[in-house]
Specification:
Length: about 110
């Protein structure tokens, strides 16, 4: 699927989201296009520090963030679509309050690491 990050330097968010989608699909033994996680949620709400549209983010820092198990929920792209700009604080608060359901399977984080 072709995706457009617009004028925002969020390529790391897109790359990590695609890798996570692949890992979840393999784990669940389902078709590759079955899951579409939100780049917007990861890039502009979940990560600390958030991805900057101007300077982007370090791939290593984002992978370390995930490796530490600091992503508790990840909604779909349909629920939290990519805007090409930072999300409002209100939208992020709603995301972090559990308003949208997570698409991550409930498995111990160590299983993801292999």
């Amino acid at each position: 699927m072709l995706q457009d990050q617009g004028t925002c330097s969020s390529c790391v968010g897109f790359a990590v989201t695609a890798a996570a989608e692949a890992a979840v699909n393999v784990f669940k033994q389902q078709n590759w296009n079955r899951l579409s996680l939100s780049e917007q949620a990861l890039s502009f709400c979940t990560l600390r520090p958030r991805i900057s549209c101007v300077s982007g983010a370090s791939y290593d820092a984002v992978v370390q963030f995930l490796d530490e198990g600091r992503v508790a929920q990840w909604p779909t792209r349909n629920c939290f679509p990519y805007l090409g700009a930072a999300s409002s604080s209100e939208a992020c608060l709603q995301l972090n309050s559990g308003l949208w359901s997570s698409q991550l399977p409930e498995v111990p984080w160590q299983q993801w690491r292999g």
